[in-house]
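The protein record filed here:
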Amino acid sequence: MSQPDAAALWREYGEGEAFDNALGLYETVERNEDFYTGNQWRGVRAPDLDKPVINVLARVVKFCISSIMSDDIAVGLDTFEGGAQQKPVTDMLSAQFSEIMEQTAFKKKAREVIRNAAVDGDGCMHFYFDPDAEAPAAGFAPTPGIIRAEILENTAVHFGNPQNADVQSQPYLLLVYRRLVRDVRAAAGAHGVPEEDIVPDEDDHRHGDAPENGKVTVIRRYWKENGTVWFCEATKTALVRPATDTGYRQYPMAFFAWEKVKNQYHGQALVTAVIPNQIYINKLFAMAMQHVKMMAFPKVVYNKNLLPGGWDNRVGAAIGVPGDPGSAIAANFRAADMSNQVMELLNTMIDYTRDTMGASDAVLGNITPENTSAIVATQKATSMPLELQKQDFYAFVEDSVRIWLDMMQRNYGVRAVRMTDETGAEQVVPFDFSSLRSLRLHLNVEIGAATYWSEVMQVQTLDQLFQNGVLTDAEAYLENLPKDCITGRDSLIQAIRRQKAQAALPAGEVMA
């Protein structure tokens, strides 16, 4: 599709919407969002009924997000060949990936991706290169631009083959944006598109928005052609950005589905299946509250024949009674108490709902720590189902890292980086990132807790080797420590080398 047109893109967009409508995706997402945020009585017409919200779903979803993100995200790179000559490059790339995480606020946005997946079914992050941003400089002018990231809703992403969940094998991807008309006109004008070709969406006209204040739907289409990724942008009436070759080999988008569903790319949300439980919990609690309001307080029953003026409940008030005032004229009445089964069933429903979502009392810390070993075992057993989502999230991060590497090769050009020379000293040198493809790096990317614990284990092993005398060279000890484990590692290594050189000189001679 070298020369796309707006009409063709809009037909593909219509096909994507039709697929999502067939799944009921838009209604599901709207309902799940309401229940997660606590708007759980929307549309219920019961003006005399209190509407309590016992939001079990929100607490469990937040627990799941925290559980998946409990380990710090780190990226470790290695080559399958294990060549020592490529280690300075992989160390440099690891530092670059850490820098990208900071620039894009990746860890913060990753939490939102997990939240979207748990509530809506899918989380999506789109990466793009901003050529106008200023790149870090060190002694010379680098190629400008940095990598940026944005979160997309699952309703705004359409796969060319919706029965296939693999992003990189798609014939095309459609990303849907709602943008201000004036911004789209300004961007399209640079490509020779007349302003009058870009008009607000019809719903803006219905709401009386002025054209310069209205919004328009913009479709960005990615597809692969001759081994590289191309893209274009269009509204319903105009192609606002012509076909452009990005030079990437991978689609710059990572996708994370909470629970995979066969024959579709959209996942099943954690919230969807237990919404009926949440409705029942709220209803049962509302009816219990109504019973307490109506029946919990004693009522006065009196004889209307003896009190034709009604009952006077004022303190010290005199009540006139025809006939003998000693006759029984009033009595207290109290209805039977509400059955204990109501609250037992309510608590059982809450417990079962949390347990089936992977958040028991032991995991949430709602039990008395009488037996620590049993508590730890229970927590591990209960949280095991989240391991599947955690591994899928690590795959999401790994996909993101490979996308960054692809974008760096294409867009970074020559930049200043820190690299270790053959003597082990770090230096700031210019590096041409386009040369990465000629190096043919076959990378092994490690994400998450595995990287963290491998560093901890490496330090512990080195300490034991040094303490037991198996390793006696302090220089070798420091060289094998993880890079960020000790401050000033390189200066310590240089100091040890100077001591060795001085010790090698004849007695009395001082090193110049």
Notes: The chain has a mean pLDDT of 81. The CA atoms of residues 53 and 365 lie 22 Å apart.
